[in-house]
What we know:
The structure is a single chain. By secondary structure, the protein is α+β, with helices and mostly antiparallel strands. The protein has helices at residues 37-48, 64-72, 79-93, 142-154, 160-166, 168-173, 178-186, 190-196, 260-276, and strands at residues 6-7, 13-14, 54-62, 100-101, 107-108, 115-123, 126-134, 199-203, 223-237, 240-254. The strands form three sheets. A six-stranded mixed β-sheet has the order 3-10-9-8-6-7. Strands 1-2 form a two-stranded antiparallel sheet. Strands 4-5 form a two-stranded antiparallel ribbon.
Amino acid sequence: MRPTEVTDRVGREYEPTLPPAPTPVRERGSTVRPFPSSRRLVTAAVRAGRRIVPMHGLFEVDITTARRLLAEADPPMSLTAFVVASLGRAAAAHPQVHAYRDWRGRLVQHRHVDVQTLIEVPTADGPFGLVHVVRDADVRSVAEIGSELRAVKADPASTTTGRLLNTVAPALGRIPGVYRVMFAAMSRSRRVHLASGTVQVTALGMFADGGGFAVAPPTLASLVVVVGGLSKRPCVVGDHIDVRDVLDLTVTVDHNVVDGAPATRFAAELRRLLHTAAVLAPTPA
């Protein structure tokens, strides 16, 4: 007889039935707390973006060359900074993709490219994506942009938006509707677009492994690029198959101000710049 078997009164063997394990006890319920003022900023910005008619494009880019050059630099350079610099040059070549309409309904195009990017910083309400504007991204180097982004990450209070986030924003957030009115007024202001930029980069892929696309809601920016996942995939290189580093990107433009054909030409230029790592090429002396 096996050690786990027992016999009944008539000598029949059977497996004993063990009592069920106790169900883990946990406390049920919910917690109610004030809505964070930093989140009110986000919801107001998304409300302001409702005026935009979004047109999305999802595409993959082979950035094997770029990743090698970024890693070989001393110190290594940021992938986000590389995307910002490449996007700035592509947007400068196709200014219609980040145009917008002002209060009088006129079409406004900038001769420069200022790019908003989100940098996660700690706040009293938890981590928050701080908007930082990279000025003249179409003419600056990847190393310079990367140094700026690292400095803001290390000391958010060194920027105007970082100081406002911890001083003015909490007080304004307690006034019902103030953010909604503020962003509605900002959405068509030339002065605000000059200050906040017309292009936005959101790098979601850094928080997850593997490939994947994401679509961000429009806000004040006319052109939004979401950096998705990065993964190794088989690609056709010449006449053979090779494993390459592939980045997933989502481009969103405002269909109010640009049609599909110009937007497609812009996306093709952005893909070329990223694939060839043109912004990392040595500058002629």
